[in-house]
Structure formats: C-alpha cells, structure tokens
Sequence to fold (446 residues):
Amino acid sequence: MSQSKTDRIFESLRQQIETGDLAEGAKLMSLRQASDRYGASKNVIVTVYDRLVAHGLARSQRGSGFYVARVAPTIAEPTHLREASDTVSLLHVQLDRPYKVLTGDGRPPENWLMTNMPAVNLPTGEGGYGSPHGLMALRECIAASQIAAGITATPAQIVTTFGANNALDLVIRRFTRPGDTVLVDDPGYYPLFSKLKLSEVNVVGIPRTPRGPDPDALDRAAQTHRARLFFTQSLAQNPTGCSIDLPTAHAILKVADRHDLLVIDDDPFIDLPGLRGTRLAALDQFRRVIQIGSYSKIFSPSLRCGFLIAEPEIAASLAELKMILAVNSSTYTERLIAEAILSRRFAKLGASLKRRLDPEREEGVEKLTQLGFDLFAPPDHGLYGFVLLPDGLNDMEVSHEAAQQGILLAPGSLFRVSGVSDTPSIRVNWSRVQDSRFYSFMRKLL
Fold:
C-alpha cells in the first residue's frame, strides 16, 4: 500500500532523528523551508511536525519553532514479549494490508460483510455500565441460538467480550500462571500461541488430523504434563478447514474427564450456516467445555464483539475478571448486534456469506486440484483450506517470494507450535483465491 506524502516526510525525519543525523536540540526547518524542500503544503508540514511531537521526537518552542527532542534509549524487550511478537508477523500484514492479492488473509472481503449500521437507541437503563456479564438482550439471543442447536445454555452462563481474542485473554489470565503447561491444536490458531508465550505459559501441541485432534496424543500429553487446559476448535478449524467428527469428539471428552481438563473451543464462525462436524458443547453441555464465539467474522472485523459460554461458576468468575480489567464491554455494540439478530438481519447476512463462499470454495478446490496440489483434508464448508506444497520447499521462503509479487500467503509453519512445518503448506482463504496471479504463482511451484 503506497504511503501518503505526510507519511513519507514523517518517516524521513523520524529516521534522521533516530540515527542521529538530526542531533538532539537541532532546530527543524521552518514550515516554509520544509514546504519548499519536500514539495508539500504548509498544512502537511504542520501535521508532520505535530506527529513528531506526539511520538516524542520533537518539541515545540512557542515563537521559535520545532526542535529535535532527546531520543529515549532503546530498552530491550523481555524474551517472552519478543517471542510473542515474532509469531504475529502474519497478523501485522493482515492489519496493514500492503498486498494486492490477499489469499492468506484470515477474513472475508469487506464487501461481503455489513458495511452500514443502523442507528442504535439505548432503552432506559442501558446507558450505564451494566452487568459485567454483558447486555442481557444479547445474552438472551446467544442462549436462544444454542438452544436452537440442541445445546442448553442460560444468559447466566454467557459473558460478552471485545471479540474472541479478548475471551481467550480472559481464560488465559483466569486459569494459567507462568510456568504452567497447556495443550493446543497443532497446527492451530497462531495468535493464541503468541498470547500463551506472552503469559510465559508452556505450550504443547496435539496433532490435528482430518477428523480433529488426535485423542491418543491428547491423553498422553495430559498425563505427562499434568495440563489443565486444552485449546481447540470444533468446526472448520483455522487453519486446516476440517471439523471434529462424532467419534473423535466423544474420545476427546473422555480424555478431559480422565485428566480433569477444561476444553476451550474457540469457534469464530459458530454462526456460519452449513458447517459440518460435531461441536464439543453439543455432547458436553458446557460441563468441561468453554465455548468462545465472535460476531466480527460475519458482521465486520471493526465490530469487536464476542462471547464465551461456560458453566455458571466459571462464567461468573470470568465476568468478574472482565469487570476488573475493562469494567464492561460496549453496550452500544451489543445492542446493535442484538437488534440485528432479533430483526433477522444477522441470519440473512450469514446466509448471504454462505451463498457467496460455497461456490468460491468449490472452484478454488477444483483449480488447485487440477494444478496437482493436495489438501490436508476436504474443507468442511468453512472459510479455510490447508494446501500441501511439494516436498523440498520451505513454506516461509515460498511466502517471502510471493510477497515480492504482492501476494499474501499464510505459511503453514506459522500455525505450528514449533514454528517449523514437517510438510510445507499454506493456509488459503476460499473467499480470496479467485485471482489469476495467485494461480500463476502456484503453478510455478510444481
């Protein structure tokens, strides 16, 4: 993505200050001089200088001009923070969006989602902080959707959050301490790995198969490491696209009973119609399962709203932690979502997403198969697929090569606990594969 003139001038001056080319105390050019030097308006230069001040790189002296401020010495990051940052490079590029072809992005295209929101009027009594569990109207909608899926849940078991990632944060803070060991899908959700590293928690991967996590490996790891938490995803898992089948779900819950495990089922597409597979909560009824869901993937990534469902005592403790950390989530956002659900707008949006996604997925699978690529597993009607690359390739190097051509790929190694993939692979987003540049690049890998 090209930088604006303001960004380019700011970066140029920032680098000169940080490298010492502009020394501490040096006076910056006057607005007129800088305007002539950079071929920009005075308003642009004012904005640049204000940004330098905001970043602590310059100071304004009334009646005199702008001067280079003292640059604070670099402070070494703690190891666990550096390791966490190293694993979120893919998240950075998805937020910055510097690519032309977004095959590796984790979200549907913006024009597939809700791009305009109706006005929200809060009824009397909803203008305060409200319950730490979240807006009752939305929790009632969530409970109703669980009951429609054959799963018993009450509003008291539900806590609303600032998206699924916030729900994961609450669970990690509540149930882990530095040095603990937790179990995760491998391959699995890479931002979760970063959160756990940041919390200085040891992470052990459980191999993910086309039928779900390997129950025997889960049993051995739970016994060996005395782990109390297992993070997984029941439906159309990120990154493999495959779901847990019924026998595997039964086996996982038996292991959880045997070893007193809490199972965290993080499913951001829980409301997407047509997904195949077995939700763990359908068998467990939230006895050992904590369900995490999100509205950001179907409504809009800008709507940071999610939820968790657990047995009442756990839900109450997580609501209390949420209150300590953030007081409460957004009543306005939750009222907007509740009204969209009650008016059936949300259901129509999900149905529309499915109608657009299904043919794109079918065509993408067909094209990749015709080229000679295999998938980790047939996708279970979700957003993602895991494409296996030819032996001998390094998926990180392949992704770097693609980036040089403006193509965003999601290398399989980023989704592995070890950071290294035995079988080179990439995660694809079926809603973003219909670009000839992607297929031209893939063809050259064979």
Remarks:
- Confidence is low (pLDDT under 50) at residues 81-86.
